[in-house]
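So, does this match?
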Amino acid sequence: MRASAPRLASLLLLGPLLAFLTLVYLLPFLGIAEWSVTLPTPGFGQYERLTGDSLVLSVFLRTFRICAIVTVVSVVSAYAITYVWVRGSRLQRSIAELCILIPFWISVLTRAFGWLALLSNRGLINAWLMGAGLIDNPLQLSRNEASVILGMTHVLIPFAVFPLASAMRSVDERVLLAARGLGASRLRIFWSVFLPMTASGVIGAGLIVFVFTLGFFVTPAILGGGRSIMVAELVYLRMFQSPDWGLGAAVSVVLVLIVGILMALLFRLARPALMGSAR
């Protein structure tokens, strides 16, 4: 009885949270899943359309391509920033901390419009280049895939920092000192010792960023200008502009399943980095 008391207390404490998640997330998702097999007619026709519709397949391929590029760029950039934040001088750590925290104070919508003000045909970059006489006509810097990748990377770098910082802080300094004592150079220590010891943080950061990118809507919609449609925007278009609720619901269910699989991988492969006990 005594052993079960803490477990019962934990369940009671988790009860309100589980009830909230069920009410806010699970029940609406079950409703969407029902739409996917009942609209416009009962059956799995909408899922068959997913495999045969070239437009939907191209959107999924574009989404995975953008997500992969954003994940790689974000994790590499976050690794460099985190390294300075964890192992730099006091001044370097303070500057890195400001770079990490300040983006959280600015909304995603504001940042997207900020990039649009910089990259649009009448934006600051084109205005400066034309004013300097370097170009005669404005460059197409926005409303394309590159601007979407740039805007999404800017948003997601801070999210990749925290699992990386957890992994880096758990590295045993004595191992690095031992490698240095054996005559290894700084570069050799980094590639052969430090980087492998923080691999779980890299995996965790990569999966977190990839999961976030799959559901991005505001940044691709603004910076892509309808030319780089991703899955989340496709769901919006099918639900509110076509309307094709059955197909939109089917796309939503597939997207949620993909995210669920990635989250399962996250907790299985990167648990040490997330819990602060990286190997």
